Amino acid sequence: MAENVEKVRLLREALGDEADLMIDVLFNWDLPYAAAWAKRVEKYNLRW
Fold first, then answer.
1. What is the 3-state secondary structure (H, E, C) of the chain?
2. What is the domain partition of the chain in residue ranges?
């Protein structure tokens, strides 16, 4: 999970706060993983 969170951090850093950032995991995550990941990346203001 740490690697997936880090990818979001790097993308947000590269794109800046004004860009919409959306992630599509192609149904590869189960609900517990997705919920835990969403809490960890909330501060990066994903569009979805």
1. CHHHHHHHHHHHHHHCCCCCCCCCCCCCCCHHHHHHHHHHHHHHCCCC
2. 2-44
Cα–Cα distance between 22 and 42 in angstroms, integer? Answer: 12
How far, in Å, CA of 40 to CA of 32, rounded?
A: 13
* Per-residue model confidence as pLDDT tens digits over 5-30: 999 999 999 999 999 999 998 888 99
15, 5, 2, 7 alpha-carbon torsion, rounded to 10°: -30
Nearest-angstrom CA–CA distance, 1 and 40? 9
